[in-house]
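We append the chain.
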Amino acid sequence: MTRPNTVNPPRLAPPGAGVPAIERIVGGLILSVHRCLGTPASMSSRFERERGAIAALCAGRNDATLSSRVLIPRLRGLEDSSRFWSVYMTLDHLRIVNDAIDRAIGDLVQNRMPDGTASTAAVKPSDRVGSEVVAAYESSCDTLATMLAAGVDFRTTLRYAHPWFGPLDAAGWSALSAIHMGIHRVQIKRILRDGTRGGA
C-alpha cells in the first residue's frame, strides 16, 4: 500500500464522529477504575511516564519524518478523522487537550464550572503545524504536570462533562490526562513505524 499524501488525502469520518459504543463503554470503565484507585501522585507519575515515552519515540527524528502525515489503521480510542496525522499534528492535539484539561481541573477545584462544552471536534490539530509545536507541547505538559502534582483534592463535587464519558470531577479529568497521552503515544509509534515502511 502506498502511503497517502496531503495532495490526495483519504476520505475519513468527520471530526467529532466518535468511536464505537463498545470502546466508549470499556474506556469509561477503565477511566472509572483509574479515578477510584488512583492517587494524585500516581496520576502525575503515569502522565510523566507517558510524556517520557513520547519524547523517546521522537528523539533523533528529523523534521521531515515528524512532519509527514501517515495514514494508519484506526486504533482503539482514536476517532477515524485522526488517522491521517503527522507526529507534529499529534503533539499539537496533545497540546490543545492538555491545556483544556488543565483549565477544567483548575476551575473544578475552585468550584467553578468550566466555560463551554467539551468537544472532540474542537481539539483537532492544525494540518500546517511544524517544529514550533514541540515547545508549545512541552509547555502544556509542564503546566498540566504542575497541576497534577499540586496536592489538591481532586474529588470535587462539581463535574464537567466529557463528550464520551459524561460528567467527570477533577479526579476523573486528571486520570483521563494520562490515559489520553497513552492513546496518542501508541498513535505516534504507529505513525513512525508505518511512515518508515511506506504504509501498512
About this structure: Confidence is low (pLDDT under 50) at residues 1-7. The chain has six helices and four strands. The first strand starts at residue 70 and ends at 71. The beta strands are 70-71, 84-85, 160-162, 166-168.
